[in-house]
Known about the structure:
There is one protein chain. With 126 residues, the chain is mainly beta. The chain contains no helices and 10 strands. The N and C termini lie far apart (44 Å).
Amino acid sequence: MAKNVSNENNTVNLLGNGTVIKGDIQSDGDFRIDGKLIGSIVSKGKVVVGTTGNVEGEIKCKNADISGKLKAQVHVEQLTSLKATSEFSGDIKTGKLAIEPGAKFSGTCDMEGNAPSVNQPLNEKR
């Protein structure tokens, strides 16, 4: 009998509303931010910033759904979604970008070529 072996980590992590973290976060699974992060996050999965979420720093992940406030440098391998409630200020490097009507966007977006892999360190140049 064959076994189904999955290397994907289905862990979902949460930074709750009312919580503030100053520092860097690294995760193999998905990460949801409803509180405030001052620093960086590197995730091999999806990063979701909820409507009460606030990030000041840097995000590097496979996919991102943004509904809250970001003042950040964002590096997303695949899809970055700015929802209608999002307020973004900074720079985005991504494979694809979706911006809903109502989203506030101030900054630059680079979709040329591939965005940096989540396996590259944050400050490493390509």
